[in-house]
Each structure stands twice: as structure tokens, then as C-alpha cells.
From TrEMBL:
Database matches in PANTHER family: ARAC-FAMILY TRANSCRIPTIONAL REGULATOR
Keyword DNA-binding on entry: yes
Record keywords, A-Z: DNA-binding, Transcription, Transcription regulation
Organism: Saccharibacillus kuerlensis
SMART domains: HTH_ARAC
Keyword presence, Nucleus: no
Source lineage: Bacteria, Bacillati, Bacillota, Bacilli, Bacillales
Coiled coil spans: none
UniProt-recorded name of the protein: AraC family transcriptional regulator
HTH araC/xylS-type domain span: 230-327
InterPro entries for the chain: Cupin_2, Homeodomain-like_sf, HTH_AraC, HTH_AraC-typ_CS, RmlC-like_jellyroll, RmlC_Cupin_sf, Tscrpt_reg_AraC-type_HTH
Pfam family, one: HTH_18
Length: 332
């Protein structure tokens, strides 16, 4: 399948005649109480023909004219708006996704989806835990607190009810990569599985890179700062050397204490922990790819105490800076 054939393929295979009530009766999903609300557990995967599958990754299309009730599932779900728009209700707030937008929803996160129209093409990608294996995850860069957050959301069994919304724009290569993934999935051939894996790594990397907003662009801010987590982490990543809660609070318009609470709630880590992760990851990059002395590296990433730098580096990487550099430079 060629990329210019994807739209016609999806329109040809769209599911317009589904009876939502009949589907719910036939599948009899378990109902779970979540904070006093009944939530359906969707723990089965279906392909574009609405046939049950057991694959570790699946791509399907959101049915037309059929709302999806409040539900959650035991896998990571990505929803990509290929054409039109999509309205998702998550954490009791409706989120509008426009063409080119993508949402990643953590497992066990209750959400519902408004009915799609005939003009909408919304792609669902589900990734079960066995697909997100250590070998796959190791291909994603860990030299970013954003990517570390994404990986933590995959491997952490606790229920945080987290989600990430990306709005890379219609001129972003994200759309090109999504089309390539669909071509390989809907028209399987030799090595399609490995190619899809590689495109997903590229997709995640592009989403990480596109998560910062252009200078002067207004942010989509809710009254309590919800939905800004990616921007918070991006700010720490770019200003790790002299970042502080006070400066962040001034940048985003929040009191430092409230900002600290948002970070803790969204990532499970304190501001100091997030800052330290970024500083130490940056130090690791310098150790692997430069001839800077270790004291100079410590100072460059924001540590005034060399002893403290050594202690925290060893805690995180289970090796001294010297041995970390020796090992990684031998691999080059």
C-alpha cells in the first residue's frame, strides 16, 4: 500500500453499521467502580474489521456514529486524528483533538469518546505491555526527562490516570510517519513488524521534539494547569543548569508551591528529583561524547559540590563518572 492510498482504504473499511448496544451486549465487558463511577473494562483488541485479535499491537479506526462509553483498558492507547476532529472526555473534561493531533492514554485511565462523523478518520493504536518490551524501550532515548516520563508511564503498574496530548501541526513529519505505520500494518509484508517498531520509535522521538511551543504562541491552559505537564518538563530540560521553581512559576503564571504540587501529581517525582534527573542525564552525555574533565562537567550541569555530584551520579547510574565514561567511550 502506498501512502496516497491510505485515506481510500480507511474509507472503504470504515465501520458505519455497528450497533453500539448490541456490541456491548455481545461482549459483556466487566464493569469496575472507579471513584464512585461505573467504568467498562475493555481488555480485548479488535482490528479494522472489528475482529478479535491477540496481537501485541493493533491499529483500528474509530467507528462512525457510535459514541464510546466511559471505559478503560489494560494497555496503552494512542488516538491519532488523521482527518476531521475527535472529542474525548477524560478527567471529566472534554478535550477537542483536531486534524494532526494525537493523544496517548495510560492504561487504567477512564475516558469516553464522542461519536465520530463521516468526515472524521480517527486512528486507534493499542500497545500491550508485551509489545513494549525492554528491547523496544531501550531504543528510545533516555537522555530526556520527557522520554523518561513516557517510559515510566509504560512500566509503572500504579494507576495514575495520566495522558499526554500532542499538537505537532499539520506540517509536522508526524503525519508522514503515521501514514507509513498504517501502510505497513494494513498491507503486511516481509519485515513489516520490525519496520513498524522502527517507525514507532521515530514517532515517539518526534513527539518529544515537537512538545515545546513556538515562542509567542499561546498555550492551551486550563484553570488548574492541567495539560501543561509536557511544557513543564520541556522547560526543565532546556533550563536545567539554573532552573528554579520561582523562575518556572513566573514563566507559567503559577505559585511555586502549586507548580511543585502539579509536577509531583503528574510525574510522581518532585521538582528537585526531575531537575536532578535532567542534570545527571546531561552529565552522562558529556562523559560519553566529550573530553571535558569531570569537575568541569559537574559545574557545567549545575553542581557546585563535586562530592554531591559523584554521590548522585553513582546512585542513578550505578557507576562513578570515571567508570561510566570509560565503559561508554569503549563502546564507540
Amino acid at each position: 500500500m502506498k501512502r496516497n492510498e491510505v485515506v481510500d482504504f480507511l474509507k472503504k473499511h470504515r465501520l458505519d453499521s455497528l450497533d453500539g448496544d448490541e456490541i456491548m451486549r455481545s461482549r459483556s465487558p466487566q464493569v469496575i467502580d472507579v471513584q464512585g463511577r461505573p467504568v467498562f473494562l475493555f481488555d480485548l483488541a479488535f482490528d479494522i474489521h472489528d475482529s478479535l485479535i491477540s496481537d501485541s499491537i493493533s491499529i483500528s479506526q474509530q467507528p462512525h456514529n457510535m459514541p464510546i462509553p466511559l471505559h478503560m483498558h489494560d494497555y496503552i492507547e494512542m488516538m491519532f486524528v488523521y482527518r476531521g476532529s475527535c472529542r474525548i472526555v477524560i478527567k471529566e473534561r472534554e478535550r477537542l483533538l483536531n486534524e494532526g493531533d494525537l493523544i496517548m492514554i495510560e492504561q487504567w485511565t477512564p475516558h469516553s469518546v464522542k461519536a465520530a462523523t463521516e468526515q472524521d478518520i480517527v486512528i486507534n493504536i493499542i500497545m500491550k505491555r508485551d509489545f513494549l518490551s525492554p528491547s523496544f524501550l531501550s531504543r528510545l532515548t533516555r537522555q530526556s526527562i520527557i522520554s523518561r516520563f513516557m517510559l515510566d508511564s509504560v512500566i509503572d503498574n500504579r494507576q495514575h490516570h495520566r495522558f499526554l496530548i500532542f499538537r505537532p501541526g499539520l506540517d509536522s513529519p508526524v503525519i508522514d510517519v503515521m501514514e507509513q505505520i498504517m501502510c505497513e500494518f494494513f498491507d503486511r509484508d516481509l519485515y513489516s513488524g520490525k519496520i513498524i517498531d522502527s517507525f514507532l520509535v521515530a514517532l515517539f522521538s518526534m513527539l518529544i521534539r515537537s512538545s515545546s511551543l513556538p515562542t509567542g504562541e499561546s498555550m492551551e491552559v486550563s484553570p488548574n494547569g492541567e495539560g501543561l505537564l509536557i511544557e513543564f518538563l520541556q522547560y526543565i530540560e532546556e533550563n536545567y543548569k539554573d532552573c528554579s521553581l520561582a523562575k518556572m512559576g513566573s514563566r507559567f503564571g503559577f505559585h511555586p508551591n502549586y507548580l511543585s504540587s502539579l509536577l509531583k501529581k503528574g510525574t510522581g517525582k518532585s521538582f528537585k528529583e526531575l531537575l536532578q534527573i535532567q542534570r545527571l542525564n546531561q552529565a552522562a552525555l558529556f562523559l560519553s561524547n566529550s573530553n571535558m574533565t569531570i569537575p568541569d562537567i559537574a559545574e557545567e550541569v549545575g553542581y557546585s559540590s563535586l562530592t554531591f555530584f559523584y554521590k548522585k551520579f553513582k546512585e542513578m547510574f550505578e557507576a562513578t563518572p570515571y567508570h561510566y565514561r570509560k565503559f561508554h567511550q569503549q563502546q564507540i
